[in-house]
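User: Show me a protein chain along with its predicted structure.
Assistant: Here is one chain, sequence first, then structure tokens.
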Amino acid sequence: MWKTITHLDPRANDLNAFAGDCLALVEGKHIRCRHYDHKTGRFTRREVHWTNDVVLVSGLHALYPDNLRVRMDLRIFLDMDEDLRRFLKIRRDVVVRGHALETVQSSIDHRRADFERFVQPQIEQADVVFSLQAAAPEYLRDIAYEGTIPLRLKIRLRTVIRSDQLVRVLTALCRIQADIVPTSAKSSIEMYIEGDEFHPEDAQTVARLLVPHIDELLDVEPKWQSGMTGVMQIVVLMLIAERAKNRA
């Protein structure tokens, strides 16, 4: 299938089986499934997967099947600025994997239409959208640049969390630049967050301040991340805590 149409097209993937497996796990059943190994470019053998208290559904089309989407407690979309996405793919495929620049650029351009048609519209189904952007776009001009790209995070929220309190804590304790921007939609807000000095210990501190009952939500010692990934962890945890409170 992938030789005829791109993997971004839902027809190239067995989404019925995907949705069926996920719904079976939600209903407390076990499944036998395989997954695509990006390192080898092949599917693994089918293995048994048991259900759990938390079922995480991930993939390019995770919000595409209607019957699966309506069963989700929290819908998250991970987005990336097109210039940053293009830079990272070209640097990986050309510099690391040794492919020709023209071939990689042609592949990106070939997939663009399907991305806009099938993947990007799923943003409208998400409760929260995390969009990564390059805080210093000048780094994107050199594909041979191997250093860290400073990132800016745009967050669009369609659900209620204590966003004002999050901004105050990030600004006061973590020296993170954070702002809330009003939107035309009354039910949503946008936040812009930027800064390089957010460490795992900062994430742990912020989480315990903003989610007092964190131990009731996390059964294991969490592995907090630095940078914008750590900020995304905090926001998701706050959303989960809000949903749990509404269910109580």
